[in-house]
Predict the structure.
Amino acid sequence: MIRIITYGTFDLLHYGHIHLLSRAKALGDYLIVALSEDSFNEREKGKKTYFNYDERKRLLEALRHVDLVIPEKTWTQKPSDVQLYQVNVFAIGDDWEGKFDYMRKYCDVQYLPRTLGISTTQIIEDLHGGGYGRCIEFQ
C-alpha cells in the first residue's frame, strides 16, 4: 500500500483544495491530511480561520479522497508523521517548491501544481470587495 501525506489549513474548502487532494490521492492508495490546528495557525502562520479545526476536519473527512485526518501542531512534526504513519509520498502545493526537499531522506516528495485562479486568500478578497461571482473553468 502506498501512503501519501499532505499538510494544510484547508479553510473555506474550495475546488482548488479538492483538486489538490484528488491529485495527491492519485499518487497512491491511502491519503493522510495533516490539518493545521487553530493554535498552530494563529501562533505560527499568523492566520485565523473562518472554520475551527473540528469543522474543517469534518469537511475533509467527508471527502472520498481523504482516508485519515491528523492534527498538524508544529512545523517540525513532518519527519515523525512520515515514520509513524509509514508514508511513502509527501505531497504539497508547488507554492512550497523546494521548501520540503529535506523530506526526501524520509520519503518521495511531490510538489503539485496549484489550481489556477483560486485561493482562499482570493476568495476572501473577492467577498470583501464584492468581486464574487467569477466563473473559472475547473480542470
